[in-house]
Amino acid sequence: MIFCHGFKPRRPGTHPILRKSKTVAETATDNLLILRAARGDQRAFEQLYRAHVDRVYGLCLRMTRNTASAEDCTQQVFIQAWNALPRFEKRSAFGTWLHRIAVNTVLGQRRRSTMDVLLTAVPDIENVDVVLDTPVEVAEMEAAIDRLPEGARDVLVLAGIYGYSHGEAASMLGIAEGTCKAQLHRARQLLRERLSLEACG
Amino acid sequence: MNMNTPESKRQVHAVSDIPQAVAPDRDLWPQIHSRLAPRPRSWMLPASLAASVLIAGLGFVIGLHVRGTAPPQVASRVTSQDAGAVIRAALLSPGYQSQREQLLRALPDKLQRLPPDARQRVRDSLLALQTAMNNIEAELGRDAGNALLQELFIGACQEEMRVLTAIDVIGGPNQEI
Amino acid sequence: MNRKWTLLVAALLSMAAVVANAAGTSFSKQVQIGSQNRVLISNIAGSVTISTWDRKEVDVQGELGDSVERVDVRQDSGIVDVKVVLKDNDWMFRSGDARLQIKVPTDAQIEASTVSASISANGLRGRQRLKSVSGDIRSDVAGMDLDLKTVSGRVDLIGSGTAARVRASTVSGTVTLSHVGGDVDARATSGDIDIDAQGASGVHVSVVSGDITLRGALARDADVDASSVSGRVKVAVQAPAGFNYDVNTFSGAIRNCFGAEVDRGDGRRNFGGGRLAGSRGEGKATVRARSHSGTVDLCDH
Fold it and tell me: How far apart are CA C21 and CA A122, in angstroms?
């Protein structure tokens, strides 16, 4: 395994390790748990939490690129979900609904940090906060995604990793569908360039 | 380097192979559980109504052009019911949030219109304000029911709005402030 | 020989023209004060000095820099409008200095706004609305209603102890209010606020990272509220019948000169912070101070 210029593997233990977890299919059990949680059953809500936290945390992590922020984001998502659960109308899957809350939470945090972005010179982000103990290829992919510009990364994470349609991703991010498609195209182009540059030739 | 090789295309398509689920390093449930507001039996109307009134009230206070201090009774009306989240929900109310976003969008241009030394001092002030808000909010995350923190947070938000509004009136030549 | 003299005279005339331009253009105009008794003043750079006289006229004198196109002085709908107009749109860094000296009736209501020009007002009894982006604002409290705002400049106000409504704010500058009475509201983000109260009935002060110093005499039923996030708050005031005090900090230290003990709370305060509440004298006035991490000093003399 040869690492080329620009890709620096992290020392084990210095960064969080991502583990594979099962995805959770929407089931009738979920719906029953939602009903009970909406009536105030916190144990039911805990089961919903256990079932969905990994996908929520994964999304938060990829959008915030920071484990502390991802933990905060995840907590916010479930607290807001608890508060809004009585109004959840099941027009979308529960997991999708949680992802919408997650995206809103991250975007809201970014808006509150806008002044920092506007006022401070932001250098090119080269640091990679995430490392995998999975095959290198996926690790390189995550690292390259991590270095994408924010808009392109958001779209790639939602559409590429989490499988949302252009329309759904656009709606979550509050952008036009055409913009979403353009960002996704840009993300793929940039990924190709960077992964090609990092491959030894 | 040919960027359209089968190799690079295969790598890009592997984005979908990246695991969606990532387990956090620690169990977040205890902290989440501690901040879940208990639901009253007949939760529907009273809770939503009370929350709406409270959020509307907070939103009104926070969205004001800054005159006068944050009234203490606002903080005391905010219950232990996840005050931090309530305050944030109030901040995300349409009026306040849209006004703030509008002001932030205009901010870079407005700053550029300042004389250089004034611009740097204002930037430093804005950063100090942002740092203060982040610090208070972080503490609120750990102690959401703390009335002092709530009051300071609301005050900082009001101050932010005051500053953004003050800078926003900076215009072109001969424009009155 | 004649040619040499011609050239010499031409050179002298050119130099005279340069000198004349460097000295700026003088401006002078007077108009009657309008029925609304209001004067609006707008300048970019330079200075605005406002004084009073006993005529029902507005007198504008000025020295104008080379980028100043003109000064409009108009009376319209009962309002006198004094506006400096620059020659082109590139106003920011040109030397568009206009130094204005304006005389107004003593009871006129004044609204002055500048970008970097300083504003100085003296003897105004009418309402004052003085705003600047980076210029300093200086005024005295001869009237009842003052609103002084700057983004990065200083605000200096000298009162006479008479009651007035005073609003002073800055983002990164400082606010200094001396001998102020009545209802006072002062705010700064990172600048310091220094208030010397003289019979003030209401003092509301707020900073984020600057320091607050409040001293002097309060009215009997005064209400004082001082808030800081990380700056220091120092309150040393006297009230005829004493005051109730309530000081609350999250992690800042609390000190007082009368030996009251700070309540450290339920153990969460082991990193600092606490609460100090009680009365001095009859406790008729109210003093409230709070801070996140700044130190609060409270004294009753």
Answer: 45
What pLDDT tens digit does each residue of chain C (301 aa) get?
A: 577 777 776 556 555 554 444 457 899 999 999 889 999 999 988 899 999 999 999 999 999 988 888 899 999 889 999 999 887 654 444 456 899 999 999 999 999 998 888 999 999 999 999 999 888 999 998 888 999 999 888 999 999 888 899 999 998 889 999 999 999 999 999 889 999 999 999 999 999 988 999 999 999 999 999 999 999 999 999 999 999 999 999 888 999 999 999 988 765 544 678 999 999 999 899 999 999 989 999 999 9
Q: Which domain holds residue A154?
A: 125-201
Domain extent listing, chain B: 47-62+71-177
Model ipTM value: 0.72
Q: List, as own/partner pairs, every contact residues A174-181 make where C-beta atoms lie below 8 angstroms and the sequence separation is at least 24, other chains included.
A: A174/A107, A175/A151, A180/A155
Chains interfacing with A (3 or more CB pairs < 8 Å): B
Q: Contact A79/B17, CB-based, under 8 Å? A: no
**B 16-55 → C contacts, CB under 8 A:** none
Last residue of a domain, one of A122, A151, A170: A122
Chain C interface includes B173 (CB < 8 A): yes
The answer to whether residue A12 is domain-embedded is no
CATH of residue A163's domain is 1.10.10.10
Does residue A26 sit in the same domain as residue A107? yes
Asked whether residue A181 is domain-assigned, the answer is yes
What's the domain count of chain A?
2
Domain shared by A139 and A97, yes or no: no
Claim to verify: residue A114 and residue A194 sit in the same structural domain: no
Q: Does B172 touch chain C (CB under 8 A)?
A: yes
Q: Are residues A110 and A65 in the same domain?
A: yes
B31's tokens: 């902290």
| The overall pTM is greater than 0.90 | no
Last residue of a domain, one of A103, A122, A141: A122
CA distances from B50 to A42, A139, B57, B107, B143 (A): 21, 48, 10, 35, 22
Q: Within an 8 Å CB–CB cutoff, is residue B69 touching chain C?
A: yes
CB atoms within 10 A of CB C270: 9
A108 plus A174 within the same structural domain: no
Buried b (16+ CB within 10 A) or exposed e, C110-124: bbbbbbbbbbbbeeb
Nearest chain B alpha carbon to A111: B101
Residue A45 to residue B107, Cβ atoms within 8 A: no
Kindly report the nearest CA distance between residue A73 and chain B, in angstroms: 11
CATH number at residue A95: 1.10.1740.10
Q: Do A46 and B28 touch (CB under 8 A)?
A: no
Of B132, B173, B176, the CB nearest to C208: B132
Q: Do A161 and B15 touch (CB under 8 A)?
A: yes
- Contact (CB<8Å) C42/B170: no
Tokens for A42?
A: 């916190």
> Is A132 a domain residue?
yes
Residue A145 lies in a domain: yes
- Report the amino acid identity of residue A68: A
| Physical contact, A and C (3 or more Cβ pairs within 8 A) | no
Residue in B with minimal Cα distance to C289: B148
Choose from B74, B122, B153 for mutation: most chain C CBs within 10 A.
Answer: B122
Contact A107, A175 (CB under 8 A): no
